[in-house]
């Protein structure tokens, strides 16, 4: 039976600002005030690979995550370009999570630099929640010299959208009665589960804002997007019941990418590189006691057209042979293309802990 008199929740979502580049600027004060781009070596505009992230100074030049590093260099050659130092970011991330976790035991880490906290039992009203958020911001700044943006709302969905609303160093509070008004003018892409392709389909249907989505006929949405259609409609009204710490694990996905030294149409080489990526991914999956259900393959062509293809299996696995087979099948779906291949990637998602189940050997 549904509990209709459920207590109002207060959910906080914290997201570090330009995380990797923030750590770089902190550790190299000489970078302060300059555009900083973290990613591959730009090699004077001839570099390969992509931007992992960049600071807000660099974003003013149009640089963003996922952009080819050569393009970033062309947009702003005077920026500071640094290679990513994952062990350092992991270390800072762990320290930040320790700080955040102190503020509520109902805690859920989300990726490298984000977390949800259910603070319903810690605060009496929204004013106290706001004060708590300021304390968190100050503590992270004091301890780690990093700013973050925080969203507070009655559920995880709206708290996440709110943390992104005023970045960097923002704090956005959305009260229950203001949720729909807050969401309505935002572009549909601001909705966490709506990616580029869904956004495009929605725009074609005349749905530009979350308000448009909220007033769209739900049956038409279901026709176009299946069960997700009804879910998008509920989300657009700010309805989301997901609990902090429930559902998916702390990590959304895990993957590796590799850019070829020169673009290639040698498909044996492509499959070989994919196999190597599978080995790296599987090794990490097993080391972290995880299982996966969804596999995504990515191919980027010489003209930067990027294709992805995914498959979700019925059963969870951590077996290298399963991953390699799925990746090979998905890659075949995407080949042959007209252009030579520049980059390949393998990503697994829909993760869950394998604790309690025997982890199958990496060598199987
Ligand atoms: P995000 O929180 O998405 O981005 P960000 O912290 O750099 O910037 P924002 O101020 O908008 O929150 O991602 C966190 C880190 O994850 C980011 O610093 C770098 C890494 N990352 C990648 O490696 N590849 C990617 O495509 C993205 C989006 C992030
Ligand atoms: Mg961030």
Question: Would you write up a description of this structure?
Answer:
With 364 residues, the chain is an alpha+beta fold. It contains 13 helices and 13 strands. The chain has helices spanning 19-27, 56-59, 69-75, 86-102, 126-144, 156-163, 179-183, 196-204, 210-215, 218-225, 227-236, 267-287, 320-334; strands at 11-16, 36-39, 51-54, 80-82, 107-110, 114-118, 148-153, 171-173, 253-264, 290-301, 306-317, 341-349, 352-353. The protein has a five-stranded mixed β-sheet. Strands 9, 10, 11, 12 and 13 form a five-stranded antiparallel β-sheet that branches. β7, α6 and β8 form a beta-alpha-beta unit. It is globular and about 60 Å long. The N and C termini lie far apart (45 Å). Residues 356-364 have low confidence and may be disordered. The structure holds thymidine-5'-triphosphate and magnesium ion (MG). Thymidine-5'-triphosphate binds next to β1, α1 and β3.
Name the ligand types: thymidine-5'-triphosphate, magnesium ion
How much beta, percentage-wise?
15-25%
> Biggest sheet: strands side by side, in what order?
5-6-1-7-8
Biggest sheet architecture: 5 strands, mixed
Structural class: alpha+beta
**H/E series, N to C?**
EHEEHHEHEEHEHEHHHHHEHEEHEE
Which consecutive residue ranges, at least 5 long each, have pLDDT under 50? 356-364
Helical residue percent? Answer: 25-40%
């Amino acid at each position: 039976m549904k509990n209709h008199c459920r207590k109002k929740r207060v959910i906080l979502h914290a997201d570090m600002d330009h995380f990797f580049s923030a750590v770089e600027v902190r550790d190299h004060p000489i970078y302060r005030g300059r555009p900083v781009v973290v990613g591959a070596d730009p090699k004077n505009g001839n570099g390969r690979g992509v931007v992992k992230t960049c600071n807000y100074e660099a974003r003013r030049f149009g640089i963003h995550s996922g952009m080819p590093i050569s393009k970033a260099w062309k947009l702003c050659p005077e920026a500071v370009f640094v290679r990513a130092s994952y062990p350092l970011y992991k270390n800072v991330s762990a320290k930040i999570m320790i700080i955040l976790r102190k503020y509520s035991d109902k805690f859920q880490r989300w990726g490298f630099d984000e977390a949800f906290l259910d603070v319903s039992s810690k605060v009496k009203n929204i004013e106290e929640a706001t004060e708590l958020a300021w304390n968190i911001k100050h503590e992270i700044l004091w301890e780690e010299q990093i700013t973050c943006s925080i969203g507070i709302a009655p559920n995880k969905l709206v708290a996440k959208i709110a943390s992104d609303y005023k970045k960097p160093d923002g704090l956005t509070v959305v009260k229950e009665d203001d949720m729909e008004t807050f969401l309505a003018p935002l572009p549909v892409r601001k909705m966490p589960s709506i990616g580029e392709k869904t956004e495009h389909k929605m725009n074609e249907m005349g749905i530009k804002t979350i308000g448009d989505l909220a007033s769209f006929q739900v049956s038409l949405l279901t026709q176009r997007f299946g069960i997700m259609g009804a879910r998008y409609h509920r989300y657009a009204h700010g309805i989301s019941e997901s609990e902090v710490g429930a559902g998916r694990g702390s990590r959304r996905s895990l993957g590796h990418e590799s850019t070829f030294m020169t673009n290639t149409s040698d498909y044996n080489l492509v499959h070989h590189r994919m196999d190597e990526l599978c080995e790296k991914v599987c090794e990490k999956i097993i080391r972290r006691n995880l299982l996966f259900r969804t596999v995504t393959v990515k191919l980027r062509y010489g003209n930067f057209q990027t294709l992805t293809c995914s498959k979700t299996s019925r059963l969870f696995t951590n077996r290298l042979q399963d991953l390699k087979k799925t990746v090979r099948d998905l890659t075949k779906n995407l080949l042959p293309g007209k252009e030579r291949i520049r980059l390949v990637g393998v990503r697994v998602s829909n993760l869950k802990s394998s604790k309690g189940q025997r982890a199958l050997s990496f060598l199987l």
